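Example record

One chain of 292 residues, shown exactly as stored in the release files.
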Amino acid sequence: MSIPDLEGLLRRCRFPSTGTDVVCGVSGGADSLALLVLAVEAGLSVTAVHVDHGIRDSSKGEAEFVSEVAATFGADFRSVEVDVAAGSDLEQRARVARHAALGPEALLGHTADDQAETLLINLIRGAGLYGLAGIEPNRQHPILALRRYETHQICDAVGLVPFHDPSNDDPRFVRNRVRSELLPLIADISERDPVPLLVRTAELSRSTGEDLDLLAAELDPTDTKALRAVPGSVAVAALRTWLRDGLGHPPSAAELTRVLAVVQHDVIACELSGGRRIARTEGILRIEPSDR
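Predicted structure tokens for this chain:
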């Protein structure tokens, strides 16, 4: 069965050029199945990879299903088992393990609906401008412009019945509540589909962040005099990049606030995560161990 408006769907995707070897993370849900189907239709050489966390009893059956789908559409298949122990923050740990197993270049089936959910999750967690940029629309997220209902339509068109992950109904996970409760409430209050609006907000946040980064790149982020001479948002962008590179992860808003106090000469030093701190000598910042 053919996919309605296949060419239109592919124009909205960000797949690499025909013939490129790609890995697609395929769980068996509608989004990842649609990713697989579209990647094949785009002329890519596809390897579908299913990651088995061992969390659900049905995971073996899901892997077999994905293997059959891959064979049907002419894609290679590989299954990877990872060990994710029960405990707190299970969702995040499973996601990290899955991404590690797939590798940094794997294509993922995130959609515009995932983008909207991510923005809201970051917002309620107190994220700033960069967090509100959401998922980066890069090579790894080729179907980010598509809607979730469209991935279901693609599956219907080619005769695939996606697996439903029961963990997606678990209210312990923040994303599930954002999806099933918060977004419908926003839609009810606004009397419109909020996803395009939230996607647009993410695009604007990303564009603004990129502009700030360009200005910040011209600064020495360790020079407090130079940092005090520019708008605060540019100084924060410069510090954020410097700290991210120095710490190995983006700094929290609280850490940036403490570092700005050092920049303004309100304090001589401040604590950072991971047993490190920022200190200032003759107007120059440095990262050093806290116990120095």
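Notes: Residues 219-289 form one domain.
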